[in-house]
């Protein structure tokens, strides 16, 4: 079990309120991702749930029980830190055993659980090494191993992949997702990387300046962003958002269209502009178009390859059913 | 980044470094040399450097006249005891300053250090009176306490610097893993800070060993350490330079040897945190 409920939680550091009153429920077994730009309060929120920071006002409930004043150890949560936070003076085995030792578990049971965790995480051959002798990915797995042996009510991940290189990150992303499928334990995952959020989450919580901008499944956020901020934050490359008379034509103070929802032609279309930089990825081509009269730059995503040169005139046609409209406050219309 | 240094320049620098090193070490070297001379040769003019009749006579006399072993034992007890007691007080203090600092932590640290600027003699009178009242005069326990108090600011400062280098996340991980405060300090913080604690202990041991003001003023016979042993040769027999030198050499030898073997640790300890 691992349902976590935040009720009117606030956090202030001195006079600065970093989390204004916030309500959120994370269901048992759910993979929830907190995502937002740096400084949005997502890590603070995670640390409040962990108990590493005291909340200023409000309540935190874990499985229906008030955990507001519990110390971290008593909350039954396990955390994986960005820097792995392994104990450098202990072997991998001792690192993984540490939470069990602290819980005064029987040595035989500890051994059994270490063996299990090591098998799951491919660490069996490394149990007697020190963290310093492991690669980044292995260290991350030890940190996860240390978390899973306790069989916690929920796992908290604080940007666990940001110290890994790109290739390893994709691999670990999959491993964590698989782990969630297998354990079915509640996971809360903090990241600033919206690709991680989109690929891993059951539920994404988009935060900005301590506020929850939107809560929803990845595809809900992609297809129906609640406001301009979410629209711009979710999706890569970013949604093209423009205002003015062109936006009014489509029925909003501002309008947005994702790069993948624009059709391209060299001869005719709704808008035209000059090709700036074209990024060829092989599978896709991103073209940055200038002088369209919409925004400084409009990004278009084309499947496959297309040969355009810098300065070419290019015609763009938005797919009207994929157009997003926002009012003066930046909120979604319809 | 390495700067290119010509080999001639390097030679000059090396020579200069040796010259300065010898200059600093010279008084100690001279003391050691003098301890092997006869009294007449010790005051010979011009001074004799190596071409004298090497003799162990002075050591014999010194050993005969005073109980060197007792002074040595007192020195070890006082320096060791004050170091251990200091650590017991300083580890929790440094922990709280490094990991749960308050708005006043920096001020408290500076204030602690400022007490080291105070001339010791300023508090001699009150401490002497206190010692009489408490019956601590000429007791090892009394000296252990005074030495600990004198060096505490330095121990706290050094440990604080070391602890600051330990990532807070690791301690937080221990907290998440269910460690109590005591377990966190005992199983995680202390083992990780061992190199720092070791050099702190070493430095404090040396400082306490060499401390003369308090040991001379607060001891007479029973608790007198090696500093008092040297002093006892300086006043009544001030003119007997060779014997005084022998006594001095015997007093500084243990700490010199200890320092020599642990100089790597010591240098690391003193420069720790300066370069990240």
TrEMBL record, chain A:
<keyword id="KW-0813">Transport</keyword>
<dbReference type="InterPro" id="IPR027417">
    <property type="entry name" value="P-loop_NTPase"/>
</dbReference>
<dbReference type="InterPro" id="IPR008995">
    <property type="entry name" value="Mo/tungstate-bd_C_term_dom"/>
</dbReference>
<feature type="domain" description="ABC transporter">
    <location>
        <begin position="4"/>
        <end position="234"/>
    </location>
</feature>
<dbReference type="InterPro" id="IPR017871">
    <property type="entry name" value="ABC_transporter-like_CS"/>
</dbReference>
<keyword id="KW-0547">Nucleotide-binding</keyword>
<dbReference type="InterPro" id="IPR015855">
    <property type="entry name" value="ABC_transpr_MalK-like"/>
</dbReference>
<comment type="similarity">
    <text>Belongs to the ABC transporter superfamily.</text>
</comment>
<dbReference type="Pfam" id="PF00005">
    <property type="entry name" value="ABC_tran"/>
</dbReference>
<protein>
    <submittedName>
        <fullName>Sugar ABC transporter ATP-binding protein</fullName>
    </submittedName>
</protein>
<dbReference type="Pfam" id="PF08402">
    <property type="entry name" value="TOBE_2"/>
</dbReference>
<dbReference type="InterPro" id="IPR013611">
    <property type="entry name" value="Transp-assoc_OB_typ2"/>
</dbReference>
<dbReference type="InterPro" id="IPR047641">
    <property type="entry name" value="ABC_transpr_MalK/UgpC-like"/>
</dbReference>
<dbReference type="InterPro" id="IPR003439">
    <property type="entry name" value="ABC_transporter-like_ATP-bd"/>
</dbReference>
<keyword id="KW-0067">ATP-binding</keyword>
<dbReference type="InterPro" id="IPR012340">
    <property type="entry name" value="NA-bd_OB-fold"/>
</dbReference>
<dbReference type="InterPro" id="IPR003593">
    <property type="entry name" value="AAA+_ATPase"/>
</dbReference>
<dbReference type="GO" id="GO:0005524">
    <property type="term" value="F:ATP binding"/>
</dbReference>
Automatic annotation (TrEMBL), chain B:
<feature type="transmembrane region" description="Helical">
    <location>
        <begin position="12"/>
        <end position="33"/>
    </location>
</feature>
<feature type="transmembrane region" description="Helical">
    <location>
        <begin position="240"/>
        <end position="261"/>
    </location>
</feature>
<feature type="transmembrane region" description="Helical">
    <location>
        <begin position="108"/>
        <end position="131"/>
    </location>
</feature>
<dbReference type="Pfam" id="PF00528">
    <property type="entry name" value="BPD_transp_1"/>
</dbReference>
<feature type="transmembrane region" description="Helical">
    <location>
        <begin position="213"/>
        <end position="233"/>
    </location>
</feature>
<keyword id="KW-1003">Cell membrane</keyword>
<keyword id="KW-0813">Transport</keyword>
<feature type="domain" description="ABC transmembrane type-1">
    <location>
        <begin position="72"/>
        <end position="262"/>
    </location>
</feature>
<dbReference type="InterPro" id="IPR050901">
    <property type="entry name" value="BP-dep_ABC_trans_perm"/>
</dbReference>
<keyword id="KW-1133">Transmembrane helix</keyword>
<comment type="similarity">
    <text>Belongs to the binding-protein-dependent transport system permease family.</text>
</comment>
<dbReference type="InterPro" id="IPR035906">
    <property type="entry name" value="MetI-like_sf"/>
</dbReference>
<keyword id="KW-0472">Membrane</keyword>
<dbReference type="InterPro" id="IPR000515">
    <property type="entry name" value="MetI-like"/>
</dbReference>
<feature type="transmembrane region" description="Helical">
    <location>
        <begin position="71"/>
        <end position="96"/>
    </location>
</feature>
<feature type="transmembrane region" description="Helical">
    <location>
        <begin position="143"/>
        <end position="163"/>
    </location>
</feature>
<protein>
    <submittedName>
        <fullName>Mannitol ABC transporter permease</fullName>
    </submittedName>
</protein>
<keyword id="KW-0812">Transmembrane</keyword>
<feature type="transmembrane region" description="Helical">
    <location>
        <begin position="184"/>
        <end position="207"/>
    </location>
</feature>
């Amino acid at each position: 079990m691992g349902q976590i409920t935040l009720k009117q939680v606030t956090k202030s550091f001195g006079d600065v309120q970093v989390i204004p009153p916030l309500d959120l429920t994370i269901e048992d077994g759910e993979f929830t991702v907190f995502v937002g730009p740096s400084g949005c309060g997502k890590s603070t929120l995670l640390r409040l749930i962990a108990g590493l920071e005291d909340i200023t006002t409000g309540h935190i409930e874990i499985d229906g029980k008030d955990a507001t004043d519990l110390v971290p150890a008593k909350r039954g949560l396990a955390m994986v830190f960005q820097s792995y936070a392994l104990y450098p003076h202990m072997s991998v085995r001792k690192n993984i055993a540490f939470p069990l030792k602290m819980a005064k578990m029987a040595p035989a049971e500890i051994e059994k659980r270490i063996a299990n965790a090591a098998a799951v995480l491919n660490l069996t051959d490394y149990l007697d090494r020190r963290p310093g002798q492991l690669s980044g990915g292995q260290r991350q797995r030890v940190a996860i191993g240390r978390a899973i042996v306790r069989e916690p009510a929920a796992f908290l991940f604080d940007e666990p992949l940001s110290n890994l290189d790109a290739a390893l990150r994709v691999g670990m992303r999959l491993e964590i997702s698989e782990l969630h499928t297998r354990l079915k334990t509640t996971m809360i995952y903090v990241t600033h990387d919206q690709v991680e959020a989109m690929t891993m989450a059951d539920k994404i919580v988009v935060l900005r300046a301590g506020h929850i901008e939107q809560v929803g499944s990845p595809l809900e956020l992609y297809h129906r962003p609640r406001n301009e901020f979410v629209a711009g934050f979710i999706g890569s490359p970013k949604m093209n958002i423009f205002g003015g008379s062109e936006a009014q034509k489509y029925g909003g103070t501002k309008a947005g269209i994702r790069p993948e929802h624009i059709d391209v032609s060299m001869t005719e279309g709704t808008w035209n502009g000059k090709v700036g930089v074209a990024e060829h990825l092989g599978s896709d081509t991103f073209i940055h178009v200038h002088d369209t009269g919409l925004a400084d730059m409009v990004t278009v995503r084309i499947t496959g390859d297309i040969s355009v040169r810098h300065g070419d005139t290019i015609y763009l046609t938005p797919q009207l059913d994929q157009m997003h409209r926002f009012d003066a406050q930046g909120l979604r219309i319809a | 980044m390495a700067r290119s240094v010509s080999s001639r320049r390097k030679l000059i620098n090396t020579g200069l470094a040796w010259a300065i090193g010898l200059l600093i070490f010279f008084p100690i070297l001279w003391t050691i040399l003098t301890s092997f001379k006869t009294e007449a040769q010790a005051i010979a003019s011009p001074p004799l450097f190596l071409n004298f009749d090497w003799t162990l006579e002075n050591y014999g006399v010194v050993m005969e006249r005073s109980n060197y072993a007792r002074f040595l034992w007192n020195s070890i007890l006082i320096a060791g005891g004050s170091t251990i007691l200091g650590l017991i007080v300083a580890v929790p203090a440094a922990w709280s300053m490094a990991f749960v600092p308050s708005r006043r932590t920096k001020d408290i640290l500076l204030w602690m250090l400022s007490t080291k600027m105070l001339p010791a003699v300023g508090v001699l009178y009150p401490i002497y009176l206190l010692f009489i009242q408490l019956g601590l005069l000429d007791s090892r326990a009394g000296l252990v306490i005074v030495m600990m108090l004198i060096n505490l600011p330095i121990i706290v400062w050094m440990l604080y610097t070391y602890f600051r280098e330990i990532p807070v996340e690791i301690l937080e991980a221990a907290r998440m893993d269910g460690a109590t405060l005591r377990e966190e300090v005992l199983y995680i913080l202390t083992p990780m800070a061992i190199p720092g604690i070791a050099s702190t202990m070493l430095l404090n041991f040396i400082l306490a060993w060499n401390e003369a003001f308090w040991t001379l003023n607060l001891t007479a016979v029973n608790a007198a350490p090696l500093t008092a042993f040297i002093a006892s040769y300086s006043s009544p027999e001030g003119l007997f330079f060779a014997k005084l030198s022998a006594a001095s050499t015997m007093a500084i030898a243990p700490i010199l040897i200890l320092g020599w073997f642990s100089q790597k640790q010591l240098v690391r300890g003193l420069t720790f945190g300066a370069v990240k």
